[in-house]
Structure formats: C-alpha cells, structure tokens
Amino acid sequence: MAPPVSTEKLLAQLEKQLEHHRERETFHSEQESAHREQREQHAREGARIAQTVDSLRSSLTTALGLVAPSASVSDEDMDTGHVRILTRLVNRVIEGMAGDERFGAAALTDEVNRRFANLLRRPVSARHVSLVLRRQARHGRIHQVRRGRPHYEALYVRERP
User: Fold this and answer.
1) Mean pLDDT across the chain
2) Is 144 left (phi over 0), alpha (psi -120 to 50) or beta?
3) How many CB atoms lie within 10 A of CB 91?
4) Is 84:132 a contact under the CB 8 Å cutoff?
5) Dist. CA 80–CA 115, nearest whole Å
6) Is the pTM of this model over 0.70?
7) Are 160 and 143 in contact (CB under 8 A)?
8) pLDDT tens, 78-115?
9) Any residues with CB less than 8 A from the CB of 37 and at least 6 apart, and which?
10) Are 90 and 129 in contact (CB under 8 A)?
C-alpha cells in the first residue's frame, strides 16, 4: 500500500496541474481564433475561385459550341505519321465504340482495313492488332473482359465493366 501523501504536497500537485490546464486552455483559445481567421480567409478565396471557374467553364462551353461543328476531323484528314500508325488507327476505331461494347482483334482488324485502306500500304493482320490491344490493356486504356485461348480470341471493353 502506498504511504499517505501530505496535504501540502497534494495541494501543490493540484495547483501545478491547474496552472498547466489553464495555460493549455489559453494556448488553444488563441489557436482557435487564428484557425477561425484562416478558415474564413480560405472560404472567401474558395468562393471567389469557384465563381471564376464557373464563368470560365460557361465561356468555354459557349466557345466550343461555336467551334465544334467545323472542328471535327474526318478519317481522311487524320495525321498518320510514320510511328505507331496502327496504334492510332486502332484507337480511332475504339473511340467510336460504346463504352460497354465488347471487341476483339478480328473485328477491329476488319474495321481498320475497311476504314483506313487508303492510308495503309497493305492490310493489317489480326496478330498485329492483338499486340496493340494487349499494350493498350497493359497501360489501362482498355480493359480485358475475356482472356484469349487457342480457340477464341480475347475480348476487351473501353470502360471497366
């Protein structure tokens, strides 16, 4: 059992604790007022920026509405370049598909050969299109829904199912 503490020591300890708690209370009340001022400043600045963003967004929407009809690029006007032309052609075909539409290398090969016959030296093979699709899936641009097997091809979608 612990020896009894004298009343003077007990009183001294309690006064020391009281002083500590009053000091912490003062400190936190000062912090509270400083944080309140900062919160109000950030709220004002956020409101001002939100208003600017809304006005800019509406201006851009209006401007794009004026420009968009004449800015559409047809397949014939597409810049093909010499590097990774097949990737760009496959991406163009995929962009035209619905988000949940499934596709495989064979269907994309047929579509690329049909739409871009004038841009290609020779028709592309399903094997090359499959390589492009696997690379796109690895980079997260499309998602694989069915893994390929010897008797059926892999299937992909644009958006995660």
Assistant:
1) 84
2) beta
3) 15
4) no
5) 13
6) no
7) yes
8) 555 556 788 889 988 998 887 788 999 999 999 999 99
9) none
10) yes
pLDDT category at 19 given cuts 50, 70, 90 is very high
DSSP state letters, the chain = -PPPPPHHHHHHHHHHHHHHHHHHHHHHHHHHHHHHHHHHHHHHHHHHHHHHHHHHHHHHHHHHHHHHHHHPPPSTT----SSSHHHHHHHHHHHTS-TT--B-HHHHHHHHHHHTTTT-SSPPPHHHHHHHHHHHHHTTSSEEEE--BTTB--EEESS--
Task: Please state, in angstroms and rounded to a whole number, the distance separating the CA atoms of residues 82 and 157.
Answer: 27
Q: How far is CA 50 from the centre of its chain?
A: 20
Contact of 88 with 108, CB cutoff 8 Å = no
**pLDDT tens readout for residues 26-77:** 999 889 988 999 999 999 998 999 898 888 888 888 877 776 554 455 555 5
